[in-house]
Amino acid sequence: MNNTVNPGNQNTESQQADQPLVGVIMGSSSDWDVMKNATDMLEQFGVSYKAQVISAHRMPQDMAEYGAAAYDRGLRAIIAGAGGAAHLPGMMAALTEVPVFGVPVPSRYLRGEDSLLSIVQMPKGIPVATFAIGEAGAANAALHVIAMLAMNNPALREQLRAFREKQTNAARAMTLPPAPQN
Questions:
Q1: pLDDT, tens digit (0-9, with 9 covering 90-100), for 76-91
Q2: Pairing status of strand 77-82 against strand 22-26
Q3: Are the C-beta atoms of 114 and 84 separated by less than 8 Å?
Q4: Using an 8 Å Cβ cutoff, are 24 and 11 in contact?
Q5: Residue stretches of the annotated binding site for substrate
Q6: Rounded to two decimals, what is the model's pTM?
């Protein structure tokens, strides 16, 4: 999965048009239904990304190479989703200076609570910004990345402001059904 749109169409020395700004990685293709919420949000804002499976347990050398080269490849954020033991976000954070945003993917037996605890309990010195379990967490991880990138991109910042204003207006327009009369 690859989207190479650059927000605001602004290239920098370290960012070529064909290089993604964000890596979206997951431990298994079964995580895609959750992680697609992150890529959908990045696409909505025109933020370039590349999504792929990088398993901490089944592809440890690939994971190490991905993390070690992340910054030099132009990545400025990594959204890492994992279920079960959920080692991918923490291991990725240990391998790169690129900020890592962890998404706990619901697991079969513990509904993602195991994943959440595994990701959020990182030792001091190796941070992973951790989000809610599931779809909302994936979308919010992307929105957090977008907010971070928007600090140096006025066009992206304006898009984010407009997105939030639209949400506010939608909430203000909500109505409740009339109360039952007794």
A1: 999 999 998 889 999 9
A2: parallel
A3: yes
A4: no
A5: 28, 31, 58
A6: 0.89
